[in-house]
Amino acid sequence: MTELSQSIEGKASRRRVTQPGAPLSPRRLCVWAETGQELRLILPEGADLLKDLAAALSARGIKSAAIQMLSGSFGRVSYFTGMIDATGARVATYGAPRELSGPVMLLGANAVFGRSEAGEPLVHCHAVMVDTEGRVHGGHLPLEGCILGTEGAVIMIAPLEGAGFEVSYDSETNYSLFHPTASVPVN
Description:
Helix content: under 10%
Order of helices and strands: EEEEHEEEEEEEEE
Structural class: mainly beta
Shape: globular
Largest sheet: 7 strands, antiparallel
Number of strands: 13
């Protein structure tokens, strides 16, 4: 169960969002990790942001990392926002992709780099951007098709040692999500 605070007509109230499944036990998953040497990565114009980021990290032997994107631009980008899942299988799901043509400025983004259920490199990223009209957009970036513009992207990476992120099924949300796991140290 998730509890959210909400203000209605100036009065604080609470609403409960009940997930469809049983929560994990223990509910909070914690694994101790050290951070390796932080890296500053610059991806150039034309790079496919998440695809090329995953390739660059994998080429350096990094299995898991916390990522902060400091600045950049997109020639084109799409993103997803959440919506109520009408099927009832989940509380929320992604809506249709929203497409933006560049130049779109990246104000910032945070991401997690880890492994998919099949053991493949995977980046999960949420970004905030400004379009050519000055409107602010934000949401989840898809795995491919976010093509960097003339500014490229400046990215800070904190590799994780002794722990990492792996996708596994979450019974409470009925989604496969990143979970922390103990792992071998970064090369």
